[in-house]
Amino acid sequence: MDFGLYKNGIDECAKNNLYSIRLNWRGEPTVNPNLIEMVAYAKKKGIKEVSFLTNGLLVNKKYAKELIKTGLDYITYSVDSMHEKYEELRYPIKFDQITENIRNMHELRDTIGNGFPRIKIQAIWSYMNNISEEFYAHFKDITDLINFNTYDDYSLTFMPQNPTLICQYPFQRITITWSGEIPMCISDWSLTTNIGNLRNDTIKEVWHGKKMSELRELHKSGRRMGLKCCQKCHRLAVPQIGNQPEGKGEHSYKKGHSGYEFQAD
Fold first, then answer.
1. Which run of H or of E encompasses 124?
2. pTM of the model as a whole
3. In the CATH hierarchy, which fold is given to the domain comprising 3-150+244-263?
4. Is residue 42 within 8 Å of 6, Cβ to Cβ?
């Protein structure tokens, strides 16, 4: 994203007391040469929680130090499995390499960052293959939270689900692409519905605009399955906190909106 466009968006967010921003959507945020400056600017403007999700390859010790200095609040590492399976999925990253990068971040944040950023590791449950205990033991001392997500196949065009469930996203968050386009939802990966553009519209105008109001009404009236984005969305095709009683799985993992998670004590 053009840094000037980004600053305009952050300035508006700060003016309207936005609490949280996540600096990623499709792609790897650390390949953006302005990422550190972008985090620093958001924190300078008073955004309370700034975070992003990364594969961790470029977050070496030097990069970690720079991130910590910005005041980054949260970082999530995608570590889908372990050893050979991880290296197959995340080629060309080596498992020992990502472990070392996370360990360095953890050590540095505790020495120069006053415990921040908080660190989360997320994996794919179907790639665990009975190694969840080993995975936990390997990472528990260098992270704050471990989350096991479901495997989502984005090539599917339809996901069976209860159409009366109301998704929280149209009421909770907005997504802005690198070019300033605003899709109707974080799950609208194909940009099937464009509801605005940061180059021409303010975020507030889009959030309170006609298109968002119509989208929310479709959800409230049980008609969201008429939207292509909702038809193939995984988020309501798996258990959601609030839509059914919370259950307990193996090892007392907390059953959440996208999988299982537990604190790394």
1. strand 118-124
2. 0.84
3. TIM Barrel (3.20.20)
4. no
